[in-house]
Amino acid sequence: MIRNPMASPDVLGVTGGASSAAVCFLSYFAGTVSIRFLPVAAMLGAAIVTVALYSLAWKRGVTPLRLVLVGVGLSAILSGITDDDGAVQSEERGDQAYVWLTGSVYGRIGRTC
């Protein structure tokens, strides 16, 4: 769409928005809201960052260069928010967020589809 090989979701901050939303969900809402809503929170975070990215890059139109530069800035900010939020929580919540962010196949061995 923007013809820029650097414009992947992780560089533009979309992945960072999903990660930040997931860690915030696990930090603040995991005890009160069902964990089944975690993917929804991550998708909402990615959608909000996508809208913010496009809005911040808009100046009489969006150029690919401006979109990538704004995206790199958003990605750095969201990475800091994710790291900070995960670090200040309890050890259990921090571990849960870390496992969700990195992925896990725990408990899946021996099961068939």
What average pLDDT do the residues reach? 81
Low-confidence stretches: none
Residues in helix, %: 55-70%
Strand tally: 0
What form results from the Cα inertia axes? Answer: elongated
Number of domains: 1
Structural class from helices and strands? mainly alpha
Put simply, the count of helices is 5
Intertermini distance: 36 Å
Overall radius of gyration? 16 Å
State the order of secondary-structure elements, H for helix, E for strand.
HHHHH
Largest sheet: none
Which percent range describes the beta-strand content? under 5%
GO molecular function: transmembrane transporter activity
Pfam family, one: FecCD
GO cellular component, one term: plasma membrane
GO biological process, one term: siderophore-iron import into cell
